[in-house]
Amino acid sequence: MRPITVTVGPLASASTNNICTTQTPSAGNTFVMAGTLVTKTFQGTGSIASNTLTISAVTSGVLNIGDRLNGAGVAQNTVVMGILGTTTNGTGTYVVSVSQTVSSTTIYANVVATLDTPRRILMTPTGNESSNTLTITGTGPNGEPITEVLTGGNATATYTNIDFSTVTQIVAKNNAAAAIIVGTNGVASSRWINFDPYALASVGVQITVSGTVNYTLQQAIQGSTAASTLLPYQVTFVNCSDLTVVGATATQQTSYLAAPTYAKVTLNSGSGSITATFTQYGVAPF
């Protein structure tokens, strides 16, 4: 296998609420995504009664059929399906896909939080959310659709196992116990390296550091068969047995005697960047 090089970092400054500012969502409703990383195609004031959306004022943008809605109390997967009544500059009545009751609130359309680089999403609750989960939807490092179900903590922050390039929707499974904010931390991983199962097993690795970092080389052998039903966030990565590349801060070389299914380098903290090169020696012997 020819050498494969991946990078991670540098990361923009972390912020605990740059995706969602303080709110207490109800079960099945979308988080209001209005942090500093978020953009939207429409913002206005509206309410929903059954399948009828009434927009009373427009702040910015245009509301279109097919737009995905976001706002306090808005149920997940609510989409504008059609126009019910006459509209003037966007105000008027529309048909939406999910029946619900939402009193006057700010309605957003097609919100997306765009991160500086693929990185982890941080959930910080003020109450006990250990029996609650957030379903986070967005895109991954290659623009592919991804979803992770993140379990909350008891007044302590938790973060995703996979890296998001964008976030398009966050939904709470249960009523939140107290206020929650959603943002980013200082953790990110490189793209996953998938090794050749038919080539010779040994793999050489060089991890080159630029600036100040703390990183860990990790690998997994799960998800290696066609029968695997694991989603990416369910794959468990294990720290490398070579401790010189666990919590490391300097350039290092190491190797795998047996190639794992996947490997990646995780930036634990720091303002610098990492370049990792993996070489699987030899070719398939048949």
CATH structural architecture of the domain at 4-10 and 189-280: Sandwich
Cα-based radius of gyration, to the nearest Å: 22 Å
Largest sheet: 6 strands, antiparallel
The CATH topology assignment of the domain at 4-10 and 189-280 is Jelly Rolls
**Counted beta strands:** 23
The proportion of residues forming helix, as a percent range, comes to under 10%
What would you call the structural class? mainly beta
3D shape:
elongated
Distance between the termini: 15 Å
Task: Please write the string of helix (H) and strand (E) elements.
Answer: EEEEEEEEEEEEEEEEEEEEEEE
For the record, the CATH class of the domain at 4-10 and 189-280 is Mainly Beta
Average pLDDT over all residues: 94
Strand content: over 45%
